[in-house]
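Bit of a strange request maybe. I'm writing a small parser for structure token strings and I need a real example to test against, not something I typed by hand. Could someone generate the tokens for this chain?
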Amino acid sequence: MSAQFQVGDRVRVGVRFPKGHIRTPFYIRGKIGTVERICGDFRDPEALAYGKAGLPKRPLYRVRFPQAEIWSDYAGRPQDCIDVEIYEHWLERA
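Reply from user aminoacidic:
Good idea to test on real output. This should exercise your parser:
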């Protein structure tokens, strides 16, 4: 599978609340960040958790978020950030 996003693209994490095993942290949903790295294609852990094959493989990205974007009361330096690895099916263009 080829990656839909490239390094430097701004992306928004989807806001969904599916039941079951979810690898995307709740606190990051709906937030906007920048693709920092394309990690490669991997089997879908949300399917693997239920004994399925996890295919087709899905692109995994490392997305960088400014801390102030994540935490409304963040009092640290403006350049502070957090990196989160997120599968493509959770991302959309910002």
